[in-house]
Amino acid sequence: RTKVIAVVGVSLNPVRPSYYVARYLSLRGYRVIGVNPGHAGAMLFGEEVRALTGFPVDVVTDTADSPQAAEAALEAVAL
Fold first, then answer.
1. Are 25 and 3 in contact (CB under 8 A)?
2. Which of 60, 29, 58, 61 is nearest to 45 (CA)?
3. In this structure, what are the phi and psi dihedrals at residue 32, rounded to the nearest 5 degrees?
4. Is pLDDT above 80 for 76?
5. This prediction's pTM
6. Of 1, 12, 52, 63, which is most buried by a Cβ count within 10 Å?
7. Alpha-carbon dihedral 45, 10, 20, 3, rounded to 10 degrees
8. How far is residue 1's CA from residue 52's CA, in Å, rounded to a whole number?
9. Rounded Cα distance, 34 and 12, in Å
């Protein structure tokens, strides 16, 4: 039933592991929402990278040790 996955700490750099994770999920048919305040507004796999998800997601995955990860997870639960 999972359709939308937030990838917290995603990088736009294709050699970074977080990019691989997001790309793999996208290629498997999931809607991937990149969450990274440093890249907010950029496009990744047809979706805008955000500072926070901004809408309900099914899964939050943390690809970086960052304070944004906890905030994004709490936001996802609240939505």
1. no
2. 29
3. -105, 125
4. no
5. 0.84
6. 63
7. -60
8. 22
9. 9
- Bridge-based pairing state of the strands 59-62 and 4-8: parallel
- Which amino acid makes up residue 52? L
d(CA 37, CA 25): 21
State how far Cα 21 lies from the chain centre. 10
Residue 19 Cα distances to 16, 74, 75, 77, 79, angstroms: 5, 23, 22, 24, 25
Task: Record the tokens describing residue 73, joined without a space.
Answer: 């997870």
**Residue 6 token pair:** 């937030």
What SS3 state is found at 30?
coil
Q: Find the DSSP H helices in 1-79.
A: 17-27, 67-78
Mean pLDDT score of the chain, rounded to an integer?
A: 87
